[in-house]
Amino acid sequence: MADLFIPEFAVKLGASKFQIGIMGTAFALSMFLSSGFFGRLSDIIGRKKILLAGFLFTGIFYAGASFAKMFSGLFLVRVLQGIAIGIYPGALAAYVHENSGTMDEYAMWGALGIASFFIFSGIIAGAKNIRWIFVFVGVFYLVSLIFALKLKAEFGPRKELPLFPLSVVSRNLHVYIAIFLTYTGIGVTWTFWVLYLENLKISPYLIGVVTAVNPLFEFITLRFVARKIRFGTIAFGILILSATYPLFAFAKTVPQVLILQAVSGFGWAFMFAGGLNEVINNGSEKGTATGLFQSSVSLGNIVGPLVAGIISVFFKNINAIFIFAGIIIFLGFVEISVYNRILKKSVLR
After folding, report:
1. Of 4, 29, 109, whose CA–CA distance to 295 is shortest?
2. CATH number of the domain residue 173 falls in
3. Number of structural domains, the chain?
4. Which are the contacts of 313, defined by CB distance < 8 A and separation ≥ 6?
5. Has residue 273 got a pLDDT over 80?
6. Separation CA 255–CA 242 (nearest Å)
7. N or C: which end of the chain has fewer CB within 10 A?
8. CA distances from 312 to 74, 189, 210, 305 (A)
9. Does residue 196 fall inside a structural domain?
10. How far apart are CA 314 and CA 321, in angstroms?
11. pTM above 0.90, yes or no
12. Which domain covers residue 313, as residue numbers?
């Protein structure tokens, strides 16, 4: 929720567009390293311990961001946030899967939560100081910690895994590469998303509403549509995203942006849930596989802000980032389509 207004907050603390891009990269790098490590650790020591630690430290560090007075302070706390928020995704997805949940449902309810938080953050940003968003995020995570304390305990021996799980990486490499490229493109646009909307003269409240349309349609797609479409694969979702993002560069009105947000949310549902379903069902190391999936997301978010910062140097109109984003995402579609074709030929033989 708080991440939506991070660029605007950084500008108020005196940061340049390039510095915002570097900060986004530092956040994603810390999350990348954390996700893979703690996803693997959850396969060894259990899910609940990892979830409790993740919720606790994420809540503390997000609330702590409200005290940032200089950009250097915000930069440091963003790195700590990245480490903390990378602790729990792999363990959470694996816990849901192992307790009769599906990745469609996991992604669906996550999307609804994100949509609700975006709307809520827009309300806070419009009515109060942006700093209050960080406080509320911290409170939400601590409430999640209380609920997580009630999760059932896990019993039985955990898995013994090598420090670097090459077998998990090799089995799911085609998904990880596609997700990395897709989130690189998304990261390019997200870096200056709020500034893009402000150029359309949108209020802080409407920024939250417009941004929420994407995860809201992801929720609707997963709830009512995804299970009825046989070709609902990760490649299908990535293709939709690659075709939709360049169109943002030509949107002139809020209704046009809303339509594009809805279409991208539809594609996002197939991309994200499809990818998670594929890696979590492709082996027994579920925490490791989903942790590496999240690391692929984070790796894209490392490169995306860097690319956005470079683009902002050469193109003064930030709308150009959407063109480059579409091209990068399309490379992800090409990669996984080629893999699927090769796999199909090998099966036929």
Report:
1. 29
2. 1.20.1250.20
3. 1
4. 18
5. yes
6. 20
7. C
8. 22, 11, 23, 10
9. yes
10. 11
11. no
12. 2-150+165-348
With tokens 């902002």, the residue in question is 312
Question: What are the tens digits of pLDDT across the range 2-61?
Answer: 666 787 788 888 888 778 878 877 888 898 888 878 887 887 888 888 999 999 999 999
Please indicate, yes or no, if residue 156 is contained in any of the structural domains: no
Domain membership flag for residue 106: yes
Assigned token pair, 133: 């968003």
The set of long-range contacts for 163-171, using a CB threshold of 8 Å and a minimum separation of 24, is 165/40, 165/285, 165/288, 165/292, 167/283, 168/283, 168/285, 168/288, 168/289, 168/292, 169/292, 171/282, 171/283, 171/289
Residues 6+ apart with CB under 8 A from 5: 121, 125, 130, 133, 194, 204, 207
**Length, in residues, of the chain:** 349
pLDDT for residue 179 is more than 90? yes
- Residue 71 one-letter amino acid: F
Residue-wise DSSP of 227-285: GG-TT--HHHHHHHHHHHGGGGGG--SHHHHHHHHHHHHHHHHHHHHHHHHHHHTSSS-
